[in-house]
Amino acid sequence: MSSDEDVAAVSRHSYFIGKKENIIQARRVVKSVGERDVLVIYHKGDFYAIDVRCYHSGGPLQEGDIEKDFDGRTCLVCPWHKYKITLAEGEGLYQAVNPSVKPLKPTRCSKGIKQRVHTVTVSNKDVFLTLNDSPGPIDSDYYQTEKYRNTFLKEGQKKTK
Predict the structure, then answer these.
(1) What is the model's pLDDT at position 155?
(2) Sheet containing 14-19: which strands, arranged edge to edge?
(3) Cβ within 8 Å of residue 10, ≥6 positions away
(4) Cα–Cα distance between 47 and 87 in angstroms, integer?
(5) Confidence of residue 12 (pLDDT cuts 50, 70, 90)
(6) Of 111, 47, 44, residue with least CA distance to 84
(7) 47/119 Cα distance (integer angstroms)
(8) Dihedral-angle region of residue 72 (phi above 0 means left; psi in -120 to 50 means alpha; beta otherwise)
(9) Which of 39, 109, 111, 121 has the greatest number of C-beta atoms within 10 Å?
(10) What integer best gives the mean pLDDT of the chain?
């Protein structure tokens, strides 16, 4: 794809996030894009974009740790309840143990796609984001609603007074 084609592909429903070098340096950037609050992460040579609040309880994912899961997928860990979310797919993972099998051996299981992820594109040293508009609700969508945002803002204002 030529750079002109890159720019054309990026310009369709894409939003400028920032300069590549600035995002690499910051590692994490939170942006309001369209009607969503999105976390853009640079981790080990890759860019990821994910809804900023955890699907479970609205935790601030920008404060979460990044770690590798047992199967090698990169996960973001919610700082509130330690929920693990794959950065590439938005899949919720949990550790399960079958008590009837000895010795106990923990395994990772999937809850399915719980967190909406978005597409990051780099063109001419600029980073762009395309929102995931796939049909059907995803659990993290709740924390992008006007009702939640109004509640979240009101609670934040109370804490700062």
Answers:
(1) 61
(2) 14-19, 126-130, 117-123, 46-51, 36-43, 28-33
(3) 121, 123, 128, 130
(4) 9
(5) low
(6) 111
(7) 9
(8) left
(9) 39
(10) 86
Span 11-34, mean pLDDT? 91
Q: Name the DSSP class of 58.
A: -
Is the CB of residue 60 less than 8 Å from the CB of residue 79?
yes
> Which tokens go with 41?
């992460």
Consecutive H or E run containing 147: helix 146-160
Confidence category of residue 149, pLDDT binned at 50, 70, 90: confident
Peptide bond into 103 cis (omega under 30): yes
Residue 136 has pLDDT above 70, yes or no: yes
Strand partners, 129: 15, 120
Single out the residue of 140, 24, 123, 33 nearest to residue 89, CA to CA. 140
Between CA 76 and CA 49 the distance in angstroms is 11
CA 78 to chain centre: 10
Strand 117-123 relative to strand 46-51, pairing: antiparallel
Structural tokens at position 161: 């007074």
